TrEMBL record:
Belongs to the FAM154 family. GO terms for molecular function: microtubule binding. Transmembrane segments: none annotated. The gene is LOC718515. Coiled coil: none annotated. One of its GO terms (cellular component) is axonemal microtubule. This is Stabilizer of axonemal microtubules 2.
Length: 322
């Protein structure tokens, strides 16, 4: 019996997709390094031409003139459609006629705006009253007229009463003397202990607990240490120093010079004066400038431009047809 799972989910009949990759039949080479590379397959060998002596790769500056007529047809000339121009209307020119009337000098503004008749404006400027020299200058201002000076009364002087000295003797009693009440109090005893000082006739010893516990040591003074003196030299001075007595002279070895000897090198072999310039150089014949001739040989006169320059064309030799 087929189970429910296998009955419901049946396997699809799938076909394997074909490969689009081209089959490459690789053949083993019979010779060592026999397989060619991509560069060797695509490269086309060309013939190598040896360079001749004196050959120049510079392009020639000779202008090659074409014998065929110039084709001046452009896309604009082909597509352009000429239209006939309309005649322009020529307006006749008016002849100026001077007027016989007198010039009134009236403009549009003066003609349209004549103005309304009204009262003349009054001058707001006060009348100028000239002050004569004999008149007295008042010197009054608006501030002085509005703010009149006030009469200030003089300050009252306070009368000081006359000093009357007291009569009788002066009592030297103050408030403290009158209010102080004396009290009877006992004298306070001193808190300092009584010193039991003995009056001895012998001098002060100056002993203390420190001095009794740490008595002084009996030290002997160290004598002066004298170093052994250098004995004075006896006899005649030799003039020898430490450097001279210890110096060992060595024999000087002169250094050899590495500079080559200045001797002319002579060889029996002839000098080889062949250079790259002498090999590749080809002497050329100095030609005379053809512009100096009135009619240069090998050229035919063509025309003259507006500036007076003459143009010549080179004569091409006729090619014989077979």
């Amino acid at each position: 019996m087929v189970p429910t799972y296998k009955d419901d989910y049946r396997a699809w009949d799938l076909h394997k997709s074909e490969l689009y990759k081209p089959e490459q039949t690789y053949q083993l080479p019979t010779v060592k390094f026999g397989n060619s590379t991509t560069f060797q397959d695509d490269f086309v060998p060309q013939e190598i031409k040896p360079r001749q002596s004196g050959q120049s790769f510079k392009p020639s500056s000779v202008v090659k003139r074409s014998t065929a007529p110039f084709n001046g047809i452009t896309s604009h000339r082909l597509d352009y459609i000429p239209h006939q121009l309309e005649l322009k209307f020529e307006r006749p020119k008016e002849v100026y006629k001077p007027t016989e009337q007198r010039f009134e000098d009236l403009t549009t503004h003066r003609y349209d705006f004549q103005g309304l008749i009204g009262e003349t404006a009054k001058i707001c400027r006060p009348v100028h009253t000239r002050v004569t020299q004999n008149a007295r200058f008042e010197g009054s201002t608006e501030f002085r007229e509005c703010f009149q000076p006030w009469e200030i009364p003089p300050p009252e002087v306070k009368k000081v009463p006359e000093y009357v000295p007291p009569t009788g003797s002066m009592l030297l009693n103050s408030t403290s003397h009158l209010d102080y009440v004396p009290y009877q109090a006992n004298r306070i005893l001193p808190i300092r202990p009584v010193s039991h000082r003995r009056s001895n006739n012998f001098p002060f010893q100056g002993k203390s607990t420190m001095k009794e516990d740490f008595p002084a040591w009996e030290n002997c003074r160290q004598g002066v240490i004298k170093k052994q003196q250098i004995p004075n030299p006896s006899g005649k001075f030799d003039g020898l120093s430490t450097f001279r007595s210890h110096y060992v002279p060595h024999k000087l070895i002169p250094t050899e010079s590495c500079k080559p000897l200045n001797i002319a090198f002579k060889s029996s072999v002839p000098f080889d004066d062949v250079t790259m310039y002498s090999i590749e150089y080809t002497p050329k014949i100095q030609e005379i400038c053809k512009a100096s001739y009135p009619s240069p040989p090998g050229y035919i006169f063509e025309n003259t431009n507006s500036q007076g320059h003459k143009f010549f064309r080179k004569i091409t030799p006729a090619v014989k047809s077979f």
